[in-house]
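ok so I'm stuck.
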Amino acid sequence: PGSIPRKGDFTNRGAEFGYEYERPARWAKATDIWLHGWFSFGYNDDHLLVAQIDTMKKTIRTVQPHMYGVVSSIYVDTSKWNETAGRSLRGYYVYNLPEEIDMPGEWYLDRQTGKLYLYPPDDFSNAKVEVSLLEAPFVRLRNTAFISIDGITFATARGMGIYLENAHHIAIESCRFSNLGTVGVSAGQPLQDNTQQFALDGSPLLDRWVSENFHDISIRNCLIHDTGTGGIILTGGDRRTLTPSGNVISHCEIYRVDERNHTYAAAVKLYGDSITVDHCYFHDLRHMAIWYRGNNHRIAGNLFERVCTYADDMGAICTGRDPASRGTVISDNHFRDILPFDDESQVGAIFLDDGVGGTEIARNFFERTGSKGDKELFGAVFLHGGYDNIVHHNVFLDCEMAVGNNYWSDERWKAYLAGPLIRERLLSEVDITSPVFLERYPGLKNYFTEYGPRLNKVAENILINSNMPINGKLELYFNHLEQRSNWQEALKRVGYRDEPTGPVTSN
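replied:
not stuck anymore, here's the structure
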């Protein structure tokens, strides 16, 4: 498996594993071979450089380790969770091989000579071929305010469209972002020259903030698609004082923004305090649509469709491992056709992972969404370990399981609160014992000493051809079944508002 950084092994040993096919015999002269795929779980992909191929032993050895170690996709010990989880997604493809170019559009880059080899399309004289060497953002705004960027197309670059740093009162409207190596817009994360870093619990550090000083940023009516590693990264406000950012993402359409990194390349990443994401259309994404941390965000009136199409243990909206991230409201959204890749995978619409609490999920429409998973714990909404969440006045139509819950034992909860990462997020990034936090979230009083039953409330939801929890511990109040023919009436009864979603005007 090679070294496993996620478990604290930083000896940087590549993996070595067998293969059962004949093609590597053709690759004897290749010197820059890469593998891309899922090498362990179904929620993390990776790109690994090949160090050596032994055609006699039929083994491949990689230069780098994989974060979770390489696990067999064929010879699996079914008694071990880490070998079975995500197994059906596990696998890889080999790329940057001149020996395998046999179809129009395929290419190979010789990094030593700087030459690019392309198998051209049939009508090459009229074909559009674009190659960019630009790594810097098209537009960089630092220590800047009161700027409007309107109606511009940002296309074809190795980097991003717009980068912000210490900026406020910035309006980005009616712009189009496509064929970019990283993201469309990033506030405070350059995504350039990054070194691999790890959080205190050994997990990979997904965010590297150069600046978090943003407020009154608006991104409206924009189209973002076909980018390498996400759509929009936005933070702002002040979490320690719970000062709102005033930042807004509205009426945008975002799809296929995970062309290079297939996981954790969210259409929108949020941090900070009080960011609104409303009336956007998220679709055709392999992994999550919105990843957030922070407080008092509002995610409302959006349409999510065909999200988490190649993922396991994931949700269209996802957060985790930060119980100080409270006050977010997820309401009036439509989740449609968010289904697992196969019977072994589990995905949902909203996933509050690893101890997150204090979230309101209200008046959403879940249509053909979610799965119960192998332990019958998942669902269209899945609550993992956290408490003090409320799921109310939603409609679930044709969902295998509406709400899932994995209740942690007292021992697991105490160990979780004592962990260095959670202590940092509760007492250093913010201070949940401070007057401002206790006034806003009175449930945090005695958080470290009084554990209580740690329950979540599920109330007054309507289920149509859908199941309520099979396992887990929840407070259930006045949830009821409805006839399929009455689903539109049910939406009206819970107060769901179906409003226009996506760009207002054509780009």
